[in-house]
Amino acid sequence: MARHIAQIALFAALIAALGLVPKFDLAAGVPITAQSLGVMLAGCLLGARRGALAVLLFLFLVALGLPLLAGGRGGLGVFMGPTVGFLLGFPVAAFVTGYFSAQWRGSAPVVTTVLAAILGGVFVLYIFGIVGFAMVTGQTLAQATSIMWVFVPGDVVKAGLAGIITESVLRLRPGLAAQG
Hints:
The protein is mainly α. The protein has one domain (2-172): Arp2/3 complex 21 kDa subunit ARPC3 (Orthogonal Bundle), CATH 1.10.1760.20. Helices cover 69% and strands 4% of the residues. It has a two-stranded antiparallel ribbon. Helix 4 runs antiparallel to helix 5 and helix 5 packs across helix 6 (141-148).
């Protein structure tokens, strides 16, 4: 149990550290950050439940006011802005990524891990992100979707990195892979 708690805290810290990578604002107040890579890695390496718990811990710290989001943002106000859907989608994305990463781990581990990261860390995350963005900005879902397309290529690259990093770590520490 102590090992699991330490891993959850470590990945919450990893997601926070990835917030130190400078953000780029492209569209309507939604930045490109490296933190979604941390969400994907949490799911891939910790599994569905612990990955989601790591992200929930991170979001709890953000809600308390710690400036852990890219650009030094934190506090309850970030949950009222255009990125609210992405933030609320983070734990679900980690869970889905972790679930499918564990289910599909097999003969082509990098490919299946990348696919799991795309499913959870891109597809599922964008469902939440687009809905939240539309609600906060008053856009239609179609308008919000067209605005968000600019971010997809970067997140697909992050999913590729998550797959490569995950499988590299698991080659060194095969017992680390969580089963859920």
